[in-house]
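ARCHIVE CARD
Drawer: 12
Card no.: 0347
Subject: one protein chain, sequence and derived structure
Cross-reference: see card 0346
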Amino acid sequence: MEPVDGGASRPTEPVDAGPPPLTPTDELDLLFVIDESGSMEWARQTLIDTTPLVLGALAEGVLRDPDGRAIARFTPPRSLHVGVIDVDMGTGGFNVPTCLERNFGSDGLLRQVGDPLREGICDASYPPVHVFEPGGASPETLDEFILGVGCVAAVGSEGCGFEQQLESLLKAITPAASPLTFHDGTRGNRERNAGFLRDDATLAVVLLTNEDDCSVSDPDVYNPASTRFTGDLNLRCFNYPEALHPIERFADGLVAGRDPRRFVMLTLAGLPEHLVPAPGERRNYRRMLRDEAMQEVVDPDDDTRLTPSCGGPRGRPAYPPRRLVELARALEHRRAYANLGSICAESYDGPLRGFVADIAASMNRAD
């Protein structure tokens, strides 16, 4: 207590020193969440082409510029786990075109099928968890490891047109003992995805999608014959936002059971390129959400879809990812790492380099 005004005293305001330092971890769990709908083939290939940049940097502990020059060094993880999921969570049991498994879809389970279009290069199937131990007794060489991840990440282009990106991610990592429930009262699939997550590891996520999240709390929104939710199926999630889970479900659920600083996420979605933060730039979420291109407006030339927020190379459209931007803001407020990039860019090198830098910071292994 310090005297004030001739002897009176009052408590001093506590100083927020921030959270205590993290103990460094040498384990990294990396999850790719990939939209497998028909309009995504070009973007998936761009990501697959860039995957060696991420996996090579993590294995070597060296971040390089586009010309191959080392720009940062960090201690690589001793053990790296990689998994791939898609975003098909079914349609609540209703028959919907393009959605073949109507009840649960892929259910947030780690993919194991190799790319059938690269027969002779990719195996027909892979273990659900790809394991690499830089500098250790890794079961594969780095080249074999990168190839295997790329083969499983080629998820195809015939997936369900209703993308539940955040629900798929959340179910994949949530333990069955969690109070969170999913469609039809089911529980999280962390145990069914056994061997992927470690308690002391940093969890890093790359989400690739050209649509906004449509994770529903009321699956009747998918019902073509619904009397409560009407109009074009393609616009149901836009017209009835009250049928979707709140963003707080995912912001809280994704960091549950871990220090938020051990969670790193990169979202590559329909964010216009002029809104993508430069390296080291503070993210202006208000500016992103207020930008004209980020407003959800029915396309005057096609009343079955929204106006694209960016076009992508070769004219492939992507749409305003407002919920995904809101999630990034909410995660950042919880002290997690959240990065955003544009799926419409011809290269994902910049955002992926920032993602690797955040991973190194989260693991607290920068040299």
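Annotation on reverse: The chain has eight helices and twelve strands. The domain at 24-264+275-295+319-363 is CATH 3.40.50.410 (Rossmann fold).
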